[in-house]
Amino acid sequence: MIQFTGESKTWSANYTITKLNREDHISRIQIRYKGKDPANVGRVKYKYTSTAMNGSGEQKLSGNRDIVTGSGGNGALPLEDSTIQVTVEWKGHKEEMELSTGASRK
């Protein structure tokens, strides 16, 4: 399993990749609201990109702090020493995070 993590002032995120075999994998992103009142956040738009993949979505926080989405496939995976850019927008606010594995970059 490879895990990328990062955070901004209001959000934290982690992106995990689980290899099922040589070709197939499952990926999952979890974006967590760090504030006190998730029910007051409303609709959240998010997007994530790296050199190997990207995704986006929109979801309403309703008392739950987390946005979780996942997918499976056999496409390209981000390298362990790469980063994933995550942007979160809500109620006129926008924050960006850079997720990494903590692996050394060459």
Task: Explain what this protein looks like in three dimensions.
- With 106 residues, the chain is mainly β.
- The protein has strands at residues 2-7, 11-19, 25-33, 42-49, 54-61, 66-73, 84-90, 93-99.
- The protein has one domain (2-99): Immunoglobulins (Immunoglobulin-like, Sandwich).
- The chain is built from no helices and eight strands.
- A four-stranded antiparallel beta sheet has the order 1-2-3-6, with no helix packed on it. The protein has a four-stranded antiparallel beta sheet with strand order 5-4-7-8, with no helix packed on it.
- A hairpin with a 4-residue loop joins strand 4 (42-49) and strand 5 (54-61).
CATH superfamily: Immunoglobulins
Number of strands: 8
What best-fitting shape do the alpha-carbon axes yield? elongated
If strands are numbered along the chain, what order do they take across the biggest sheet?
1-2-3-6
The CATH architecture is Sandwich
Termini gap: 21 Å
Structural class of the helix and strand makeup? mainly beta
Proportion of helical residues: under 10%
What's the mean pLDDT score?
A: 91
Per DSSP, the total helix count is: 0
Regarding quaternary structure, what we see is single chain
Gyration radius, in Å: 14 Å
- H-E string: EEEEEEEE
User: What top-tier CATH class fits best?
Assistant: Mainly Beta
Provide the number of structural domains.
Answer: 1
Unreliable stretches: none
CATH topology: Immunoglobulin-like
Strand content: over 45%
